[in-house]
Specification:
With 280 residues, the protein is an alpha+beta fold. The protein has 10 helices and 6 strands. It folds into 2 domains: 1-67; 89-152 and 192-279, Muramoyl-pentapeptide Carboxypeptidase, domain 2. The longest helix is centred in the first third of the chain and has 65 residues, at 2-66. The chain binds zinc ion.
Amino acid sequence: MKHFFKNKIFISTICLAITSLTTLFFINRQKQPKDTENSNNSPDESNEEEENKEEPPEEKESSQQEQPSPEEHKPESQREEQAPSQNNNSPQNQAWALILVNKQHGISQDFGIQTTKIDGIDVDVRIAPHVLGLIKMAKSQDINLGLCSGYRSIMTQNQLFQREVDGLIAKGYSRSKAEEEASRSVAPPGTSEHHTGLAIDCYSNSQKNCNLVEAFANTSEGKFIKENGSKFGFILRYPKGKEHITGYIYEPWHLRYVGEKVAEEITKSGKTLEEHLAIA
Ligand SMILES: [Zn+2]
């Protein structure tokens, strides 16, 4: 019995010891995860720091997006001016833009086009952007380019021609001689390129009149259209020294739209439209 009692104490002691060790074990187990969490905190903090470090670049990006840089405006303005030239390259554009009208190639009286007004002058709607582009470019250089004439109906052609003939008759010309002389500068009805709506007569807005004389070539407006007309698809249709081909005296104010590509070719070659079309 005494031995049994001793054993019971011994067993109890062992159980207590086991319980204590088990408790200590679990306490240690609980501590380790806590330490691990603490150790994990440092990467988390560093992540936050990294995120904070990334914020300034993000702010930079957003500030770049918010600020409309000059480059963003530049393409827009370029697009406006380049859009017409892209249209110029289409075959459809080339076809209508290359119509030949002269004393040998008359134009049908019922030739119809859709016109629009620029500064009160009628032009073919298809060349309006090009005319406006030319005027806008001139303005940017303080050149006050204006329009004196554009589309002319048969009725207007008649009136202009008869007025010229009557003026010459008043100076002593016979009717036949007057008509011959008048046709050097004013198209006989039915042969006017202005009927196409693709021709414009330019002048200086500062002069406030349509006094179309050869001296226009020496004005800033005359020099401007000669130098820059082709950029917008225009040629000087009646160049100096080409009357035997075009049938008209030198008209430094008369521009004809032919499309940018052909305008560049003609301007570079120095040929007339008649010469260009003959070899095209
Ligand atoms: Zn003209």
